[in-house]
Design brief:
The complex is a heterodimer. Chain A is built from 14 helices and no strands. By secondary structure, chain A is an all-alpha fold. Chain A folds into two domains: about 1-140, no CATH class; about 180-289, no CATH class. Chains A and B meet through helix 1, helix 3 and helix 5 of A and helix 9 and helix 10 of B.
Chain lengths: ~290, ~240
Amino acid sequence: MILDLIVQELKAMLKAADGSSIRLKRKAITTFFSYAVRQERDGQRKLIDTVLPLFRVEVVRGHTVSTLPLLGLTIMWHRIEPLIDTVLNKENSISLKQVIILASPNLPWGRFINPRHLIQPWAAAAEAISYTADIGQSVVDTLLQIAANPSLQPHIPADMWSWLNRPSSLPSVCLGRFRGSDGKVVQVVRELRDIETIKSYLLLIWSERDEPWPSGFYEMRASLREDFSGSGMGNHRQDLLRRLDDVLEQLDPEPEHLHFDADTFQRMKKEYGQLREVLLDVDRKARLP
Amino acid sequence: MIILQLEQLGGDSTAIEPKCKPIATLFLWLTRLETADESWRLHNTCRQLFELRDRIHLASPGPAVYYLVVLLSCTNVNGDRVTTRPGQERVAGVASMCLLRVLSGVGPESNVAEDIRQRYIEDIPYEAKFEGPFRHIQIAIHALLIRSQERQSFGWMDHEPCTQDHASFANTLIQAAYNRRKHGRVPRWILRFTLHFLSRDPPPPTSLVADCLTIVAIDLDCDVTRVEPSTLDERCVCIR
């Protein structure tokens, strides 16, 4: 009976898609998640299917990540680390690993006491399960969050960056895109020296929904000038230009459904406009005989 | 004679209420005679009476201060270190559980809670580090009485009470969660308790799982009274 009440309540929260309620109740939801994971291990999928969709609700509808305190966006309670550790390191169940991968963007990667030991098994789990759009989205979102943490970034297996090249998008409000736009992450991606990966990364990060970090814009301009110059890069430049045009179009006029403050909005238009100018300039120079 | 009289009272719940204070005084006296066989029989009788009384009048916890006095008399405080006096563990356990039941049944702003809090903070340090077999109960009492977010961050990683203790303690936490939710939010330390047990491997006994899920349901604003309209004290959860 208690389970019925909880499931009813969670379904109502999902139906209402009320992100603030979900955020407010994240400790209870995380606690129930831990119970649902164990039930999943015993072959009962129903409970985990009730909880997982909650993690994909837009937790702050109408707002951008950059305009809100980040703490509340990590829906999973950091106290769940021992359970995540157990599933990733000691369980062989593919379905359990899939559950953890889908939930992993909601883990507070920057706030775990010692999450380094989770990165390798997380990466192994991602490789072990079948690819779906949701899985791809979760892996990339998590990857960018881990990359944004200087103490964690060196522990990312090199192969994981190839996930950026798989067809995926990111949720409209997404910690990975916000944190992953830091200049240090741009540097790390550039150091891979793989033009497809760099392009995929930029296409994922550029969005009218969030303002990249100033250090990120600086590094992105450097990347456009240095990585995408030359006549052989024409197709890549066209793809990037299309994305920038799309973002700038979304920002003009100011989107009513987004709660930007005036300064942020103007800054974003200016920064994305500058990226476009740099790209056009690089393209002009590349066409010169 | 006292024992016989008390045992007779045990069968008549309406007779207990006016006798609470003398029983509590007797209870306090027992803390000095804990080791004697006869005193243990007396102590057991008192405990039964207290527990019976708690079930009858949970909302009017008259002898709560006596529970606290008994508990404090069994307690050694050395700096931040809070331990139970050797030989008085059983009395301390009963008194602390009785006190926790009272506190879990009242709101944080109630006169009872405030009265107990004033006396409590005179003896128990804010940064108390509890030791001993009833550490979890004392942690719960401390968290309910000390108004501080910082002191709500107790962990349960090393908590391994016996089965009997589990049932009683977890059930009391349901009461505490329910009352605190009515006045705000379920405290973090209670949710942490549920997370600790719901993610354990192997899983805890079904009754404890049920209690933990009830606490989750309370925090999610589920109407748990729909499950069992009488009281939350009774086992009222079915696991499918």
